[in-house]
Known about the structure:
- The chain is α+β, with helices and mostly antiparallel strands.
- The protein folds into two domains: about 5-115, no CATH class; about 120-255.
- It is about 45% helix and about 25% strand.
- It is built from ten helices and nine strands.
- The strands form two sheets. Strands 1, 2, 3, 4 and 5 form a five-stranded antiparallel beta sheet that branches.
Amino acid sequence: MSQGVYLFCLTPENPLLKIGVTGLDEAQPLVTEAVAGVTAILSSVSLEDFCGSESRERLADLAWVAPRALRHEEVILTIMRQAPVLPVRFGSVFSSVAAMALSLERHREPLSRFFLDTAGQKEWTLKAFVDRPQAKLRLMSARLAEEKEQLAGLAPGKRYLLEQKIKGAVDRDLACWLKGIADEIVAAFKAVSSASSEGRLLSKELTGRDDEIFLHTALLVPDRSVERLQCLTIEWNVSHASQGIQLESSGPWPPYHFTPVLDAFV
């Protein structure tokens, strides 16, 4: 069985790292390798697991992937607690240390720039949720109040048609209102972050909440600004509680959304 090199993450050159955890399985230890001006955190793996004829089926098997993906993240978080970290995507495998070093050497400049740009900062996530029925009811009530006199003077058929028109307008109003709130949140949190990256909106099954998510963004936050970030989150929730909006901030995380594209990783 051919052995390859599995790359978890990179840090600036640091000989003092404590990496007392194993690789993707308990049989292989984590090791460090100084290459291209950085330190690579890696372990040995079977190349057949990721590159063999059966690898496609194996990588589609959640029971096989899930524990290894969790281990991948655990290693990155372990390193992040000790040093700046550039997380590498799950499944980054090379045929040898020499092949990995050659790939990293081609990316020496963006790697160096990444660590300069993210020094003293970590990723934090903002998620905003809305109680859509509550928000819609509030807008609907306001619309009906505006049209109260006109509705009262209509015959039942025409009244029904106007009410349906109002409901359609409320749906559009709600979408515009949520877009405005999302823009306000992003603008408010610029004061505590150096960069942001928009994430995809998650389903209720993934968020585990009944409320609907309408904002999901990653922020690159200086360590000195974390307390202000948390205070801003609390202040926002207090001031918008009556509108059925809840804002969550979570972190710190490795800068997943701000990592340069290293297209030679395979």
